[in-house]
């Protein structure tokens, strides 16, 4: 088995706080802090990771530092988020979750993911980034581990 891992928690997953993508961000940053995140995956990237930090009012470097120093379980990370988030009310969380669910990749990214997975880019193909990213993760996992 590889020394690096494709993150397999979907951006469409929420933990007890109800914040979509937060569990995936924890997993990616945790893997990155240990040098175990698969190539091509940022610990905190400019997409959903940045959206999540901004929505909660979390400093990206502080997130990375906490995870690297403490190696928290997911519930421990959420406890830290509760103490450090500047915005964690239900309305802000729902606004963030709607933004995650409503985000679509640009055409080039969508076409690249679908093509790599052998799926036609037609009316039945996913358009939203959450499902496209899931397909991409599953494909990358298959290539790295199962092929």
3D structure, described in words:
It contains seven helices and no strands. It is mainly alpha-helical and 147 residues long. The protein has two domains: 1-103, no CATH class; 105-147, no CATH class. Helix 6 packs parallel to helix 7 (129-146). The longest helix has 18 residues, at 129-146. The model has no long low-confidence stretch (mean pLDDT 96).
Question: Main attributes?
Answer:
mainly alpha; 2 domains; 147 residues
Number of helices: 7
- How would a textbook summarize the main sheet? none
The portion of residues assigned to helices is 55-70%
As a percent range, the share of strand residues is under 5%
Outline: globular
Number of domains: 2
Mean pLDDT: 96
Strand elements, count:
0
Cα-based radius of gyration, to the nearest Å: 16 Å
Uncertain segments? none
Strand-pairing-aware structural class:
mainly alpha
- Taken in chain order, the helices and strands follow as HHHHHHH
Spatial gap, N to C terminus: 11 Å
Write a concise synopsis of the structure shown.
This protein is an all-alpha fold.
What is the fold's blueprint, element by element?
Layout: H1 22-33, H2 48-56, H3 60-70, H4 74-84, H5 90-102, H6 107-116, H7 129-146
Helix pairs in contact: 1-3, 2-5, 6-7
């Amino acid at each position: 088995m590889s020394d690096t891992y494709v993150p397999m928690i979907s951006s469409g997953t929420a933990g007890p706080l109800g914040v979509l993508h937060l569990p995936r961000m924890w997993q990616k940053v945790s893997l990155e802090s240990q040098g175990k995140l698969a190539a091509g995956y940022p610990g905190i990237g400019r997409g959903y990771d940045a959206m999540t930090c901004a929505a909660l009012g979390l400093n990206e470097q502080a997130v990375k530092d906490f995870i690297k120093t403490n190696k928290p379980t997911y519930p421990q990370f959420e406890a830290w988020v509760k103490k450090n988030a500047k915005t964690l009310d239900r309305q802000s969380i729902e606004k963030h979750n709607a933004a995650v669910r409503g985000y679509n990749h640009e055409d080039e990214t969508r076409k690249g993911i679908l093509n790599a997975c052998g799926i036609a880019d037609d009316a039945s193909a996913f358009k939203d980034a959450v499902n496209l990213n899931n397909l991409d993760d599953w494909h990358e996992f298959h290539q790295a581990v199962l092929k």
